[in-house]
C-alpha cells in the first residue's frame, strides 16, 4: 500500500485562482516511511494572493518570491521526479492513496497545480479514495471540541503541532492517523 501524506499552505481557498506556496509530504509504502519533502513554491504571476492567507501562514509577500522559494515549474519537476520513483503512472493499479487532514482541499490544490503545469493526469498518480482522519473521528465517537481544526484535534489527543506549516501539519496528521488506527484496533 502506497500512501502520500501531504499538506499544502496556499494563498487563498480556491484552487483555480490561488497558489500552493508550501507542499510537504511523507511517502509511506507498506507501513515504512520512504521519503519526506518540503517544497516552498513561488506563485505563478497570475495567481491571486490573499494577504489574510499569508498572515495565517506567517509569510510576507516579498518572502514568497525569493529563495528558498522556487519557481512553480521547478517545484513541479521535483515533485514529478519523486512521484515517478514510486508509482508507474502507466499502471492503473499502481497509485498513491492521498492522506491528510481535510485532504480533499489539498487534493484540489494539487490537481490544480498539475493543470497549471499542463498535466491533466493527476489520477495517474493518485487514487480517488483518500485517507482522512477528520472523517475517522466519527468512528471513535467524535469528541466534543470547540472546533475540528487540525490544531484543536491534535491538542485533544496530546499531539504537538507547528500549525500552518505544511511540514508541521503533515507530521502531526501522521501521528493523529497512527493514534486513531491504534484506538480502532482496540
Estimate what percentage of residues fall within beta strands.
Answer: 15-25%
Task: Provide the domain count.
Answer: 1
Counting helices, strands and paired strands, the structural category is alpha+beta
- CA-based shape: globular
The CATH superfamily label reads Ribonuclease H-like superfamily/Ribonuclease H
Distance between the termini: 22 Å
Low-pLDDT segments, ≥5 res: none
The major pleated sheet works out as:
4 strands, mixed
Average of per-residue pLDDT values: 96
Considering DSSP H and I runs of 4 or more, what fraction of the residues is helical?
25-40%
What is the overall number of helices? Answer: 6
Per CATH, the architecture is 2-Layer Sandwich
CATH class: Alpha Beta
Strand order across the largest sheet: 3-2-1-4
At CATH level 3, the topology is: Nucleotidyltransferase, domain 5
What is the string of SSEs from the N terminus onward?
EEEHHEHHHH
Beta-strand segment tally: 4
Gyration radius, in Å: 16 Å
Amino acid at each position: 500500500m502506497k500512501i502520500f501524506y501531504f499538506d499544502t499552505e496556499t494563498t487563498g481557498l480556491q484552487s483555480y485562482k490561488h497558489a500552493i506556496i508550501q507542499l510537504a509530504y511523507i511517502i509511506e509504502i507498506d507501513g515504512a516511511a520512504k521519503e519526506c519533502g518540503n517544497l516552498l513554491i513561488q506563485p505563478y504571476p497570475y495567481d491571486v494572493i490573499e494577504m489574510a492567507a499569508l498572515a495565517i501562514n506567517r509569510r510576507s509577500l516579498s518572502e514568497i518570491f525569493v529563495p528558498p522559494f522556487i519557481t512553480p515549474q521547478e517545484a513541479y519537476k521535483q515533485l514529478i521526479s519523486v512521484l515517478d520513483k514510486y508509482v508507474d503512472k502507466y499502471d492503473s493499479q499502481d497509485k498513491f492513496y492521498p492522506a491528510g487532514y481535510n485532504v480533499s482541499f489539498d487534493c484540489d490544490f494539487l490537481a490544480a497545480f498539475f493543470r497549471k503545469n499542463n498535466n491533466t493526469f493527476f489520477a495517474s498518480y493518485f487514487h480517488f479514495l483518500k485517507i482522512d482522519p477528520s472523517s475517522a473521528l466519527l468512528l471513535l465517537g467524535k469528541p466534543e471540541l470547540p472546533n475540528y481544526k487540525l490544531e484543536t484535534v491534535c491538542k485533544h489527543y496530546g499531539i504537538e503541532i507547528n500549525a500552518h506549516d505544511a511540514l508541521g501539519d503533515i507530521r502531526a496528521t501522521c501521528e493523529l492517523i497512527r493514534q486513531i488506527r491504534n484506538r480502532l484496533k482496540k
